[in-house]
Specification:
Two copies of one chain form a homodimer. Chain A has eight helices and five strands. By secondary structure, chain A is an alpha/beta fold. Chain A has a five-stranded parallel sheet, sandwiched between helices. The termini of chain A are far apart. At the A-B interface, strand 3, helix 4, helix 5 and helix 6 of A face strand 3, helix 4, helix 5 and helix 6 of B.
């Protein structure tokens, strides 16, 4: 029996959360990995999440289903088309249609529920404010607000004086920096999945924002993406 | 076609949320009622929620399933027994085992997701800081923190300058005051359900904290509970 501190990590199956898991592991946390099946088009990321959880040695991996598609409002869950072949400037201009309403708030609240039940004070989230500058719920001020909320919201915070901490080690990194960090920590990127609109085989489309960011990130990092190119 | 402002209301099927719905309706909102099947023991409240949604004329009623029981940590979802026959002083002493980790945070985040997709700025929640003084996520400071978070978390808040407001009209009322208000607004309490541990018929046990609070509330309000007594 080990005495590692438990931490809940939101694991999407993408390379950001895989790298975040590797950081948490390197810091000595025992990982409880949480993935959410929220009706996303790109369900392949859930099988990727299971592969990553196993590879990283997670103590437990829970995939919760919650049908956010019933609310509509996003290209990732609804009938809106995923944009393709957008230039970087275009990606930056506004919050993309792939934004899922309040997604990180839903995910963090579920991670908090599990953390409280586990008596864990630490949550890890692979958000990034550089490449996803358009997503409001990837910004540091949002993360700080959630941390404040978590300490008011819970029996753990109020009765047991547990101070929740949301770790976002990648928040100020570029995709290339994340890939370099992941590579240093031994992340097997062949297990991860990034594409918003994969083929039925799971192969990346190569043209959505996520595929483009990934491709440019590997190029800038001077590394080769082990995934097939769309 | 009407031009009422849309509002998302969390509807549990209990008398607090039924009264909150009646307040929202009286204020002229078009109601989008959200109920959560979270693995609670007392699933009868979900059928009660559907009855209340229909009676109140909700524009839409969505019941989302999310298996919080997988996290454990509560008498309402886990194997811990629901406490019975507790004296009022005992109920006040500490946060009860019926507390569900981070429940209101999970519920409000889902309500926020739907509100954003609907372009609604108003959320209604029947929390109460008097009778549920032990629940950290029923306190005004918690609600304020969530409101602040909602405005940072969303595309609606950031791009469209929608200011989310979480209405908690019952937060400072006693159970008797809530029952009187509901009665004035025409709430049919026979449609509601409060018991944490009902019989297989749905009949209230009469002995859990929720049954006791309800009984005392009707007595203090000088009204008769139309539900059968356990």
């Amino acid at each position: 029996m080990t005495h590692e501190k438990p931490a809940v990590i939101l694991l999407s199956g993408g390379l950001d959360s895989a790298t975040t898991a590797a950081v948490a592991r390197a810091e000595g946390f025992a990982l409880y990995a949480l993935s959410i099946d929220y009706g996303q088009r790109h369900r392949f990321e859930l099988t990727a999440a299971a592969r990553v959880a196993q590879a990283i040695g997670a103590r437990q991996h829970v995939t919760l289903s919650i049908d956010l598609a019933r609310f509509g409002g996003s290209a990732l869950t609804g009938a809106i088309a995923v944009p393709k072949d957008r230039a970087p400037a275009e990606m930056d201009r506004e919050i993309p249609v792939t934004y899922v309403p309040a997604r990180n708030t839903v995910f963090l609240s579920l991670a908090l529920a599990w953390a409280e039940a586990l008596r864990a004070a630490d949550l890890f989230l692979g958000v990034n404010a550089v490449d996803y500058s358009g997503y409001p719920d990837c910004r540091p001020e949002y993360i700080q607000a959630f941390e404040a909320l978590a300490n008011l919201a819970t029996k753990a915070g109020v009765e047991h004086a547990i101070e929740f901490r949301i770790h976002t080690p990648l928040i100020h990194m570029t995709k290339a920096q994340i890939i370099r960090l992941g590579a240093e920590l031994g992340v097997d990127f062949s297990l991860t999945h990034s594409c918003y609109d994969p083929a039925s085989t799971g192969c990346p489309c190569g043209r959505c924002d996520a595929c483009q960011l990934r491709r440019r990130g590997f190029a800038e990092a001077g590394l080769v993406d082990p995934l097939p190119r769309g």
